[in-house]
Amino acid sequence: MKKYYLHISLLTVTALGMRPLMAQSPRSAMAKADALFSQQEYFAAAQLYEQCYTGKALTDKHYAAPFSVKKIRRKSSAKKYNNADLAYKAAESYRQCFHYQLAADWYARAVAENSHQPQLQYWYAVTLRATGHPDAAKAALLKFRTGLPDSDAFARAAAAELEHIDFAARQQVHPDIKATILHMAGDSLTAVSALSWKDADHIIFTGVVPHGAAYANKLYQAVLKDGNVSAVQPLEIAQENGQYAAGSFTPDRNTIFFTRWEMVAEKKQASIYSSTLTAGKWSAPERIDAIVNLPGYNAMQPFVTTDGKHLLFSSDRPGGAGQYDIWTVALNGGKVIGAALNAGTNINTAGDEVTPYYDMAAQYLYFSSDGRPGMGGLDVYRSVGPLETPGMAENMGLPVNTVKHDAYFTLRPGSNGKEAALSSDRNSDCCLGIVLLQFPPEPPKVVEAPPVVAVTPPPVVVQEKKDTSWFIHFDFDKSVLKPDAIEVLDELARMLKADATLNTEIFGHTDGKGSDDYNNKLADLRAKVCIQYLLKQGIDPARISGQSFGKRHLLKEEKGNDDASAREMNRRVECRVFSSH
């Protein structure tokens, strides 16, 4: 069930494949379609499968711009080949290039044609979920799972899809977060994606343009100010003999890292390259050595930290937790040194983790993943902590994420974390575009706390086994440690290290809003993130125990849905310190 997120990274050049294919004989069209599918040229393969299914050649007028929001529909009254498997192959081709609307249409045809492909109902459900039909998707998934053992890989995948649907249903609307589609009006670009910042007003991004019989991905630069784009032009590096995407500058702007891919042994191979500015000219792109580009594997989506000391990237190289993982490697003067390190299981899963971005000021690692319960497809996650020891990842929810693919999250320099961009196909049937996000200012905190609450706890002297409790508070629906929480945990860790007779119990709680099941899980996450922090401080796990109570033990009664101060007090973890003697 490998999902070719290489295509996401490569901005779905594989989705576009060839330009419109003209009439061919049924036999040659079928052979060509199968060959294109094996070469991962899925969009072109879909066109030929359609031709074989309908018995009617497709012409230019049937083709829409690949990244267009307009939905493509093809109606045909007669079919020369009434073949259920052809409908399934067309659906598979559209799904592989992330054109979910057309994929759903063709899966529906395959169902109507009584296709017996074993995974038909599963993939049909995936496309229904991605096109905003959760109830129909759930019905298809439940039907698919009937009779399958829990150990079956697709049964587990169906269970994960059901979790996505339930997770999306729980998400709250955030009208205070503004999401705007970025348009590149007046230029020849068919599509844009993977935006990164050269500075607060200057961007680089990947643009897709027609190039002969195919489409080319190139790096571009432009000015982005007040939501308007101007001065769009190709980035001044050599961009021949390959496809180019996802650029990231070193702090001095003299070196740029980027993804380049090409066909190697009839397979698309992605590698990370760099180019250096010397005397006003960019050097020829140079492939980074095996520290990053391990032979036989893909490396892509480089990101350079603002101090120029680390390069983050995504790779399917061995030694990770799953398929594509986030990796880091040290930089010195724009040169890769040392060994690549896996970001660990707080970040990486058995699925795919891609498009890393690190905010050094806040110590937040942003990335996209499909390996956790989320909205569906790729979701943006955030983890707090230093690069060497990132904390547990947390889904960023609506409207950052949608039921489609959301990736390449990046903050605008100088915005104090209040402006960002990401790439998403939320407004398209098939392909990624750029979305600008504006977050509201932080609301003033309501200061209302009982005597037992201490932001900075005083030294505690434990006498005669007397128990002492500290409280750590969380934002609504979050399990991320805030700075004052880290202060409390640091003090607790110091106390435990100073007195080996002390132990601690960690109790997770939520406010009274939401279902019991959801709050139980959230309380458990809050307790775990505190326990994990203490473990990283070197506290023996035998001295730590934990339990979660959800919303069962409110610290203060909540009077109605608008009782913000009470809910804030109840969203907590209680750390109980006691003597073992």
Give an account of the 3D structure:
- The structure is a single chain.
- The protein is an alpha+beta fold.
- It has helices at residues 5-9, 13-16, 26-38, 42-54, 84-96, 100-112, 120-130, 134-145, 153-170, 483-498, 516-536, 564-570, and strands spanning 178-181, 191-197, 202-211, 214-225, 228-234, 243-249, 255-264, 267-278, 281-282, 286-287, 299-304, 310-315, 325-332, 335-342, 353-359, 364-369, 379-384, 394-395, 406-411, 419-424, 433-438, 468-473, 502-508, 544-548, 572-579.
- It folds into three domains: 20-62 and 68-146, Serine Threonine Protein Phosphatase 5, Tetratricopeptide repeat, CATH 1.25.40; 179-190 and 248-438, Neuraminidase (6 Propeller), CATH 2.120.10; 468-579, OmpA-like domain (60s Ribosomal Protein L30, Chain: A, 2-Layer Sandwich).
- It is built from twelve helices and 25 strands.
- Helix 6 runs antiparallel to helix 7 and helix 7 (120-130) packs antiparallel against helix 8.
- The chain is globular and about 85 Å long.
